[in-house]
UniProtKB/TrEMBL annotation:
Start and end residues of each F-box domain: 1-45
Superkingdom, taxonomy of origin: Eukaryota
Matches recorded under Gene3D superfamilies: Ribonuclease Inhibitor
SUPFAM superfamilies: RNI-like
PROSITE patterns xref list: FBOX
Name of the protein in its database record: F-box domain-containing protein
InterPro entries: F-box_dom (IPR001810), LRR_dom_sf (IPR032675)
């Protein structure tokens, strides 16, 4: 049987076991192997200024047929690399042809914020298979324009920097990202991202989450089970608001340094927190400013967990055995 008549699957199987140098040699032996080798070499790319392989972006921008085989792309550009604008223009052109992407991770120089690379220059591009998008970009109009073209997106992680000044929040249509279940980003962005979408996991590491924003989280069509946030609100009323609006919370991590720094001299504060936690029927783990709160393994008469009236950090070692085993640090899924 002649070489061209062999099943393409056979070539794929052979090539998948070769190292990059052998793949390059195979590609030079016969033009038949070029698309096979390109598909394997460019399917999953990890590029960075540290690895000195950013020139691959230029290759992709000049060869749309190669760019279309990319499935996962990760690019890291450190601020010390001094990457010039032509690189970002090449990245923009390359992304415009990567319609088969499933995962995109862009960690670019935050001093430049080249979020405009997400916007195609000449034609409308969609990413029907993209499920994960992680970037160092803030929540701006370029990002929302990109999100309008990612109907299968499930995980979104953006820079947590708040929208600057009095600028209005960028517009995102209600039909965009209908499958989103995980979000990490600015507390301001949740007002646009959360309502009407099936969020289950939310991490907000900037700003000051208020009870008004908690009500906004309740507009998710999914059951929010994981929440990480910073708040300066009165803790007990804030927890009551969470219990009222987010009844399916299973993992909760709050940074509330104001309350922790008070170091209450009596147990009233801790007892109030423990009582409020009991009103969250699904809650399994709670962390407040780095302190874990344990709960008993047995449920009370109302079918709810019994939370100890002090964080685990404050409990003597010989009492830890009576607390919930939290040896696996807070079970957040990123």
């Amino acid at each position: 049987m002649s070489l061209p008549r062999l099943p393409i699957e056979l070539y794929d199987n052979i090539a998948s076991h070769l190292c990059p140098s052998d793949l390059a040699a195979l590609c030079r032996t016969h033009s038949l192997f070029c698309p096979i080798v390109q598909r394997i070499l460019y399917q999953h790319l990890v590029l960075s200024s540290a690895h000195h392989n950013l020139s691959v972006v230029v290759t992709l921008s000049n060869n749309p047929s190669i760019a279309r085989v990319v499935r996962t792309l990760s690019i890291t550009v450190h601020s010390s690399a001094h990457v010039l604008r032509p690189f970002y223009s090449a990245l923009r052109a390359a992304l415009s042809t990567m319609s088969e992407l499933t995962t995109l991770d862009l960690s670019l120089d935050t001093n430049v914020n080249p979020s405009w690379v997400l916007t195609p220059r000449t034609h409308h591009v969609t990413y029907p298979h993209l499920k994960t998008f992680t970037s160092s970009f803030p929540f701006d109009a370029h990002v929302t324009d990109f999100l309008e073209r990612t109907p299968a997106l499930e995980r979104l992680e953006l820079d947590t920097a708040p929208v600057s000044g009095a600028a209005p929040l960028p517009f995102l249509s209600h039909s965009a990202i209908p499958r989103l279940v995980h979000f990490m980003g600015s507390y301001q962005a949740i007002k646009v991202i959360v309502p009407g979408r099936p969020l289950e996991s939310i991490h907000i590491h900037d700003g000051d989450l208020s009870e008004d924003e908690v009500a906004c989280l309740a507009q998710s069509t999914g059951h929010i089970a994981v929440l990480g946030a910073i708040t300066s609100a009165l803790l007990v009323p804030f927890l009551k608001s969470l219990a009222r609006h987010l009844p399916y919370l299973a993992y909760l991590r709050l940074m509330a340094p104001f309350h922790v720094s008070l170091k209450p001299s009596d147990d009233t504060f801790y007892e109030q927190v423990a009582t409020t936690l009991t009103s969250m029927p699904q809650l399994l783990d709670f962390e407040l400013s780095g302190m874990h709160w344990g709960s008993s393994c047995q449920a009370n008469e109302a079918g709810r967990r019994i939370w100890q009236a002090a964080p685990i950090s404050s409990v003597p070692d010989h009492h830890l055995e009576d607390s919930l085993d939290l040896t696996s640090d807070f079970a957040f899924v990123y």
